[in-house]
Structure formats: structure tokens, C-alpha cells
Design a protein that fits this description.
Radius of gyration: 31 Å
Structural class: alpha/beta
Number of strands: 21
Strand content: 5-15%
Strand order of the largest sheet: 7-6-5-8-9-10
Number of helices: 32
Largest sheet: 6 strands, mixed
Length: 792
């Protein structure tokens, strides 16, 4: 079983690849529509604008001071040099070698452009380096070598090998690529892989295993026709043999037809797959074939050829940009066919990015001396198995789909599936260890998987923990603006993932119409329309409850009954009456009015005169809690005290040890005559006096709050000495709201919220334009709040 997907927002890596993937699809369509002028301009602008190219080098160590520089370079750098001289393996301790891949090419077979030369191929190699980084966290240097002589090329690459932890060979023409890879694998002592060969083989191999399972065939019985005899075709066919395809059932064709044993001047690779069967043309070979693998040119397969294949055929038409037969033409010719192509705008894309970043990640992390057959086959089975797992909604959402599942149109994971890193890399590392070529074996697989999550920035640990706890006792969570698409999508995600039981408030007809248009199945989701006649009894019951509660505050039964037609009132009363466990309201403007409504219906916790909201920010530096971000416009001293107490409880509730800084533009009285710093300082005094157990101090500026060393050196008396602040209390709503939105807009981290603190029952609210993943996170937090509240 693969690791479960953390519930989290789309990471910067996913965002980048989504843009790349969408761009590729768009550009393919543009090319097919003969809009080559627009395509050319868009591509050239993309590469030229801003800093030219697609990659850069970023320091990983401090460099601000003279001391930093003396450690980074002379004289301090001499010490790691001497350690490595004594023990070459220490290069993995003191340098980036263990996380660095060389993407190396001579430009002799670049994409479909052919032999365009080393320099002209540089944009492709930069792109490959970008993909390594965004998908697996591996750094990569693109190296373009202006040498076509295979022996000389090998010697040059060998001389560069000490720089890298692994080498990805790219866009080198056949048959030279075979000899080049073989020699470098034997002579370099680090993982070397020609991705054009093996990447395609591994991904298509995983697809083949799943396709034959769906088609109810056995791999030892299938008849395979391969059209194309280049590096990828040869490597694919070899791997298929290793997976169980019998050699006598393979027919390979090239531009001259079937490769027969009686043909003259066959290369060593073609001779390996030459047949003695009485077949001469591709058309003849296709008759009764179970599987077609195309790595050749567009349009060579006709619908008639597909119809001549065995029942339930499999067609992998991988010529790019246009396949050997169009996807829809093949499906029309044989409705029971499974079709895969190299294109992202059709189902079942055979995309090397599903493999190479994670294969190298596993190889480098285990200290493998090579990428051997066992590691490739491990990758095949890991990718194959992942396709059979339930597809996380974050993947559906990335592709604008709603119901991806294992079947004829989904035989491989999507390129944006973040589980690939967590499944393929460990499988490859384990295979390296079991085959005896790992110099740095993985000792703790749970720790290793968490380490892999960290490569993707926010590792999702915070929300993953919340989700796991919430799913243990499913709560009924009402989504107040059920007519909105984002709420409907969120309800479907929550229902499919089994985190909680979502209920949508709104017009059932409208909601169903939206769901049909979006391709969403909402048959299991309860829809309640507060305005419908069948809710009359509940409206009246809720009105009696509210008017009884507020009869001394001027709320009559008639007025309360009118309010029950409003979704936010109705939803909050569902929670108050026990008909639901939590409510998430949608705000069309400022949250103050909704907050006041919540206070009037469910009330505040005992011992508090205020309630507040906080936002949780997950960053690479850790998790931070920011309050109050939406409720109290100008917090007086009493409000600041309540906000701090409530936030302290919330941070502990989320299993973090709070260290609270109360912010201002003043540091510990430096602007003591001003009203705002005085108000914050007074709140700190009260907290220290009445609630000494709360670790809080201030007033202080944000940089002093976040820089422990600076704060402790400048103000050694502070009560947070030695502690890393993780909780920030802002002096007013304006600064808090601007602060967290500024950080969010700058991509500093993922923000979850607003999380309400201080109400008696779990009533939450968010903007009606909130993203689906934000709604999912808040609903999950509300569900966990309901569980804890029930225990209290």
C-alpha cells in the first residue's frame, strides 16, 4: 500500500507543473489548429521574459556575514576538502553531490527535432532540470556536450561524474546511445540512466500491466507488435520481456516493415528481436495481436488494423506530438480497446515525468551505485499499484475531473499525483538495498517518507493529523452556501474522502444542476432547503428555541421565524438544536456581521467576553498561529487578553506548545506614550499577573518576535528567552488581516483559517470565494472541534 495523501493546498511545485502541463496541452491544440505563429511567440516569450531560461542556483547556507563567507569559501572550505580527500564518500556529507543530477546531452536526437546540436538542445535540458526540482526536490545541472563521437563523449562525461550523484542522459540518438549508456553505467560508479529509453519503458510497462489486467489477459499469452526500433522501442520491449512477455510472441517493425531474421545488415539491437514468422508488413503483424506499441511516426496505424487485432486490444500509440492513430479513431474502430498516447489531452498519457524524478530520488537517497533492472521493475510495480488506489480529490481538481478511477481510461497515475514521490522513490530505494548496491541504506521508512514530504515544501503534517483525528468519528458538518460551486466541490471531496458527513444548505434543483454540469456525483450528500415547505416544522421549532433564548433581548417568535428562511441562521440553529455537529457559513463581505450572528445564537464560552479567529500558517520554518484576523476591528485591553487566552488554548489544542508575542510597532515601552503600545503593554501586564502559565510577552516588533537571538540579546529580560515564537497576537484587525494576506500572497506558506476560538459550539465562517481546499480544511477543523466539544 502507498502512503495516504495529505490533505493540503496545491504546492508551488504542483502549481508550476500544472502550468507546464496545461501549457503543453494548449500548445498541442494550437499546433493542430495551425496556430504556429502564436505558439512560437508564446514559447519564445516564456523563455526570454524576466531572467532568460528556466533555472537558477540558490544558496542553502547563510552568507550575510564575513564569518559566513569564510566558512563557505576560503579559509574554512579547506576542511571539508581534506575530509573528502581522506574519505571520498564524505562528499555526500559535505557537498550537494547526493542531491545533484547531471542532465547531459549532445543534442543528436532532441525531441522530434532530430540532430540540432548541443547548444540548440539546451532549452530541453533546462526543462528537464526544472522537472527534477519541482517533482522530487533534486537539483540538476544541464550539461550540453558538443561531441558526437561516442567514445569521446563517454570520456568527457566520465570526467564530469565526480560532480554528480547521478547522471540522466537525454536526447542522444540510437544506436550510439546504447553503447554510451552501457559504458557509463560500468565506468562511473553512480546511477546513470538514459531516460528516453528506460523512462518510457518503465511508465509504459506499468500501463501494460494494468491494461492487461483490465482486459483480462495474461502477460505470458499476449502477442505484442512494436512499431519502431529506436532506443525507446528497444528498451520497452526488453522490459516487457522481463515482465513476462514471451520472446516468440513479439514482432518488431521498422520503416522497412517487419524485422525478420533473414534481413541483411541488422544492428545488434534489431537482431535481438528479429522474427522467423512469415510476416512482412505492419498490417500483417497487427492481425490477432493483443498489444500494439508505437514509437514511430503519426498515422501509420489505420482503424482497419485496430479492428483486425484480438478482442479487447491494447494500443499504446506514443509517437509525439501526434500518435500512430488518433485516440478517438482507435476507440471508434474497437470500442473495447484501451488506448494510451504521449499526449496530455487524451486519457492514459505515457509521461516520463511519472518516473524519472522519483527513480533518481530513490537511487540517490539509498546511495545506489547504479539504476539496475531490479530498481526499474520496482518502479514499474509501484506506479502500477498506485493507479489502483482511490484517486485523491486534489488530483481530480488539478485536471478538472471528478471521478478518476482505475479502468480503461485510467491505467496510470496522473503526473500531478503527489503520491508518486511517496510511493516510487521508496520502492526504488528498497530495490537498491535488496539487490546489494545501496551504500546508504534507509533505516526508518516512516522517517524517510516524512523526509520526502519535506522536499515538497509544506509537508501537510498539520492538516494530515487533523484529518486523521476527524475521520475517526464522522461529524455532520453543514455547508451554508450550498448553491455555490466551490461548496459543492468541497462537499464531494469531503464525502469521497470519508472525513465527515457534509450537508449542503440550498436549493436542491440548483445544486443538482450545478453538480451535473460539473460532472460531480452528489447522490450520497444530503441537501436541505431552509425555504422548502418540508422544513416548516424545523423552522418553527428553531424559531421557538431562538425567541425563547432572546425574548428579553427584543426577539419575538415572528422575527425569529423570518430569520429561519436565511441559510446562516438556519445552519447555526441546526448546530444549536443538535441536528448537526458543526456549521460553516459563507460570508459575502466582512465577517463581523456573521460573527455577531454566531454569538447571538450559540453564545461565547464561559469566562470570556470576546471571541476571535486565528489563521494557521504552515511554512518551511514551521507552523505559526496569527490572531485576531477577522472579528475584532479595534481590540481594547480586555479584548487582547481574551484573544491571547483563547489563542493559547487553541495552539495547545492543536498539539503545539505556544510561545506568544504580542505585536506592536514598539519594543517593551520604547514608544510608551502612544495609545496602541500602551494598550498592548497593559494586556501583557494583566496576562503576566493573572495568567502566569501563559508564555507571552510584549509589546514587541515582529522582527524581534521571530528572531530569538536578536530578541534575547537586545532585551535579555524578556520572559520568552530561548523560545522560538510560534504565535503572534496583532494589536488590531487591520494589521492582522493585512499581515496574513500579505504573507499568503507572497507565497510564504499555506494558510488555514479563519479558525474560530471562543464560541460555545463549532460555528465557522469563510469568504464565499474561498478555494475548495480552504473549505475542506475549515470543515475538517470544524468537525474535529465538534468532537472535542462533545468530549468537553
Amino acid at each position: 500500500m502507498c502512503c495516504p495523501l495529505p490533505i493540503r493546498a496545491e504546492s508551488e511545485f504542483e502549481q508550476v507543473y500544472r502550468l507546464i502541463n496545461n501549457t503543453v496541452t494548449t500548445l498541442s491544440i494550437m499546433a493542430n489548429d495551425a496556430k504556429s505563429t502564436d505558439l512560437k511567440k508564446a514559447a519564445l516569450d516564456y523563455h526570454e521574459e524576466g531572467r532568460p531560461g528556466k533555472i537558477e542556483t540558490t544558496p542553502t547556507k547563510p552568507y550575510a556575514s564575513q564569518r559566513d563567507l569564510s566558512l563557505a569559501y576560503s579559509p574554512g572550505v579547506a576542511y571539508p576538502c581534506l575530509e573528502i580527500e581522506q574519505n571520498p564518500h564524505d562528499a555526500y556529507r559535505y557537498t550537494n553531490k547526493g542531491n545533484l543530477v547531471g542532465v547531459i546531452s549532445n543534442g543528436t536526437a532532441v525531441l522530434g527535432l532530430g540532430d540540432i546540436g548541443a547548444l540548440a538542445g539546451k532549452p530541453v535540458m533546462e526543462g528537464k532540470a526544472l522537472l527534477f526540482k519541482i517533482f522530487s526536490g533534486l537539483d540538476a545541472f544541464d550539461i550540453e556536450i558538443n561531441e558526437t563521437d561516442p567514445d569521446k563523449f563517454v570520456e568527457i562525461v566520465k570526467s564530469l561524474a565526480p560532480t554528480f550523484g547521478g547522471i540522466n542522459l537525454e536526447d542522444i540518438k540510437a544506436p550510439e546511445c546504447f553503447m554510451i549508456e552501457d559504458r557509463l553505467k560500468k565506468e562511473c560508479g553512480i546511477p546513470v540512466m538514459h531516460d528516453d529509453q528506460h523512462g518510457t519503458a518503465i511508465i509504459s510497462g506499468a500501463g501494460l500491466l494494468n491494461a492487461i489486467e483490465i482486459q483480462k489477459k495474461k502477460i505470458a499469452d499476449i502477442h505484442l507488435v512494436v512499431n519502431g526500433a529506436g532506443a525507446a522501442a528497444v528498451s520497452c520491449t526488453r522490459l516487457y520481456k522481463a515482465l513476462g512477455v514471451r520472446p516468440e510472441n513479439i514482432v518488431m517493425c521498422d520503416s522497412k516493415g517487419v524485422i525478420r531474421a533473414d534481413r541483411d545488415n541488422l544492428t545488434e539491437q534489431k537482431r535481438e528481436f528479429a522474427t522467423t514468422r512469415d510476416l512482412h508488413t505492419l498490417e500483417e503483424a497487427m492481425v490477432d495481436a493483443d498489444v500494439f506499441l508505437g514509437l514511430s511516426v503519426a498515422g501509420v496505424v489505420t482503424p482497419e488494423m485496430v479492428r483486425s487485432m484480438a478482442p479487447r486490444p491494447i494500443v499504446f500509440a506514443l509517437a509525439n506530438p501526434n500518435p500512430e492513430i488518433d485516440y478517438y479513431a482507435a476507440k471508434e474502430a474497437a470500442p473495447d480497446v484501451i488506448v494510451a498516447t504521449g499526449r496530455s489531452d487524451y486519457p492514459n498519457q505515457i509521461n516520463n515525468v511519472i518516473g524519472f524524478p522519483y527513480i533518481f530520488r530513490g537511487a540517490l537517497d539509498s546511495g545506489a551505485s547504479a539504476i539496475n533492472e531490479a530498481m526499474k521493475i520496482a518502479a514499474v510495480y509501484a506506479i502500477s499499484a498506485l493507479a489502483k488506489e482511490p484517486v485523491p480529490s486534489v488530483v481530480d481538481e488539478a485536471y478538472g475531473l471528478s471521478d478518476l478511477h482505475f479502468g480503461p481510461d485510467y491505467i496510470l497515475p496522473k503526473a500531478l499525483d503527489p503520491r508518486l514521490l511517496l510511493c516510487v522513490a521508496p520502492a526504488v530505494a528498497r530495490a537498491a538495498m535488496e539487490s546489494g548496491i545501496a551504500s546508504r541504506p534507509i533505516e526508518n521508512w516512516d522517517v524517510y517518507r516524512n523526509h520526502l514530504r519535506e522536499f515538497m515544501g509544506d509537508d501537510g503534517k498539520f492538516m494530515r493529523t487533523i484529518t486523521e483525528h476527524a475521520a475517526q468519528k464522522k461529524q455532520r458538518v453543514v455547508l451554508g452556501e450550498g448553491n455555490l460551486e466551490n461548496m459543492i466541490r468541497a462537499a464531494v471531496r469531503l464525502n469521497n474522502e470519508g472525513t465527515l458527513i457534509p450537508i449542503l444548505l440550498g436549493n436542491a434543483e440548483m445544486i443538482n444542476r450545478h453538480a451535473d454540469r460539473l460532472g460531480l456525483d452528489i447522490s450520497e450528500i444530503e441537501i436541505i432547503n431552509p425555504r422548502h415547505d418540508r422544513e416548516e416544522e424545523r423552522r418553527e421549532r428553531y424559531a421557538r428555541m431562538l425567541s425563547s433564548k432572546k425574548e428579553r433581548k427584543g426577539v419575538s417568535y415572528a422575527e425569529a421565524l423570518d430569520k429561519m428562511y436565511i441559510r446562516s441562521y438556519f445552519g447555526m440553529m441546526m448546530v444549536e438544536a443538535g441536528d448537526a455537529d458543526a456549521f460553516l457559513a459563507g460570508c459575502y463581505s466582512a465577517a463581523n456581521e456573521m460573527a455577531a450572528r454566531a454569538v447571538s445564537i450559540v453564545g461565547m464560552r464561559e469566562g470570556f467576553s470576546h471571541f476571535a479567529t486565528l489563521h494557521i500558517m504552515s511554512t518551511r520554518m514551521g507552523t505559526y498561529f496569527l490572531a485576531d484576523t477577522t472579528v475584532n476591528p479595534i481590540a481594547d485591553t480586555d479584548a487582547l487578553v481574551d484573544i491571547t487566552r483563547l489563542t493559547d488554548r487553541a495552539v495547545r489544542y492543536f498539539n503545539h506548545e505556544p510561545a506568544i508575542a504580542m505585536l506592536s510597532y514598539s519594543n517593551f515601552g520604547s514608544n510608551g506614550s502612544e495609545a496602541e503600545p500602551k494598550r498592548v503593554a497593559e494586556a501583557v501586564r494583566i496576562l503576566h499577573e493573572k495568567y502566569p502559565e501563559i508564555p507571552v510577552d510584549g509589546e514587541m516588533q515582529a522582527d524581534y518576535a521571530l528572531d530569538t537571538e536578536l530578541r534575547d540579546q537586545t532585551y535579555p529580560f524578556n520572559t520568552l528567552k530561548g523560545k522560538k515564537v510560534n504565535t503572534l497576537i496583532f494589536p488590531n484587525l487591520s494589521s492582522a488581516n493585512i499581515g496574513y494576506k500579505l504573507l499568503l500572497g507572497m507565497g510564504v506558506g499555506k494558510v488555514i483559517g479563519p479558525v474560530q476560538v471562543g464560541l460555545k459550539k463549532p460555528v465557522y465562517f469563510t469568504g464565499v470565494n474561498a478555494k475548495v481546499d480552504e473549505i475542506v480544511d475549515l470543515a475538517t477543523l470544524a468537525a474535529l472541534d465538534a468532537i472535542i466539544s462533545d468530549r468537553d
